[in-house]
């Protein structure tokens, strides 16, 4: 496929705006589909470090961590998401 081109596109976008949350989160989702869990974690941790971390990023990362078996970190991330958006359906679902 065109995986290398997609990765280059995400990287170029992040060079222009390193804190663009939609790009960070979409890149993380893409890299998870490619099986690159190390980069997925780096990207979501980067998103969580920002003051404007979207609830969706927290919810997706928490769900990802659960699938990896990292339940302690998943609980931390999902509790943060719940605090930010206690009625968000995706957060409630992922926190289960």
Helix content: over 70%
Main beta sheet, described? none
Give the termini distance in whole angstroms: 36 Å
Q: Which regions contain 5 or more consecutive residues with pLDDT less than 50? A: none
Structural class: mainly alpha
Helix-strand pattern: HHHHHH
How many helices does DSSP assign? 6
Strand content is: under 5%
Question: What would you note in describing this structure?
Answer:
The protein has 96 residues and is mainly alpha-helical. The protein contains six helices and no strands. The protein has helices at 3-16, 21-33, 37-49, 55-68, 71-84, 89-95. The chain is globular, with a radius of gyration of 13 Å.
Overview features:
mainly alpha; 96 residues; globular
List the helices and strands and how they pair.
Elements: H1 3-16, H2 21-33, H3 37-49, H4 55-68, H5 71-84, H6 89-95
Helix pairs in contact: 1-2, 2-3, 4-5, 4-6, 5-6
Write a brief caption for the model.
By secondary structure, the protein is an all-alpha fold. Helix content is 78%, strand content 0%.
């Amino acid at each position: 496929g065109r995986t290398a081109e997609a990765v280059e596109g995400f990287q170029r976008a992040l060079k222009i705006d390193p804190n663009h949350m939609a790009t960070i989160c979409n890149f993380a989702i893409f890299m998870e589909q490619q099986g690159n869990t190390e980069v997925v974690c780096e990207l979501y941790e980067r998103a969580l470090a920002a003051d404007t971390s979207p609830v969706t990023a927290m919810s997706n990362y928490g769900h990802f961590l659960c699938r990896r078996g990292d339940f302690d970190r998943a609980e931390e991330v999902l509790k943060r998401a719940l605090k930010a958006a206690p009625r968000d359906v995706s957060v409630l679902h992922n926190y289960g």
